[in-house]
Amino acid sequence: MARESGFTLVELLFTLALVAVALSIAAPSFSELLHNQRTTIAAQELRNALDFARESAAHSGQPISIAATNSDWAMGWEVFVDPTNRGVRDPQQPPLVAHGGLNDVSIRTDSTSRRYIHFTPRGNAIQPNGAFHAATLTLCGEGRTSYRVVFNKIGRIRSESGSTADFCPR
Predict the structure, then answer these.
(1) How far apart are CA 110 and CA 103, in angstroms?
(2) Could you tell me which of 43, 102, 141, 145 has the fewest CB atoms within 10 Å of its CB?
(3) CB-based contacts of 33: which residues, under 8 Å, 6+ apart?
(4) What is the C-alpha separation between 155 and 127, in angstroms, rounded?
(5) 7-37 as b/e, with b when 16 or more CB fall inside 10 Å?
(6) Burial letters for 116-147: b for 16+ Cβ neighbours within 10 Å, e otherwise?
(7) What is the rounded CA–CA span in Å between residue 142 and residue 65?
């Protein structure tokens, strides 16, 4: 008598139970990975925009600003030529780069960097009164890892990662 190959109902249910248990264990880790990845990408995009603004000022010989949308960096930003150091783009002039809002990431700044950051043709950042501008922008996500984007008085920009508990206390 020939026996047909296949799965019994018991074997199929046992396999489905094992898959369900494995997914329930992996789901929180996957969620954490997604939160951390969103924050990492946001930090890279902000750092790239700051690098672009600084390099554009140096290469074009024109002062360039990067301004937060509605004074909230998490809502987005735009890079534009700013000869008056007001942090406001002339409506007739299109932005050099624009970035939309971030998902599940907030950005904390110091008081001098809330609205905009202005780079001179020499590549350094200055405040509206002409004083040097050094700042830290802290990106706080829902995961365990957060980032700081820091630039010093000569305009050099660096990023650092750390735990959300240390960088973004509630």
Answers:
(1) 21
(2) 145
(3) 143
(4) 12
(5) eeeeeeeeeeeeeeeeeeeeeeeeeeeebbe
(6) bbbbbeebbbbeeeeeebbbebbbbbbbebbb
(7) 29
Which among 27, 39, 13 is positioned nearest to 161, based on CA atoms? 39
- Residue 49 burial (C-beta neighbours within 10 Å; 0-12, 13-18, 19+): buried
Query: What pLDDT digit, counting tens, does each position of 112-152 carry?
Result: 899 999 999 999 999 999 899 999 999 999 989 999 999 88
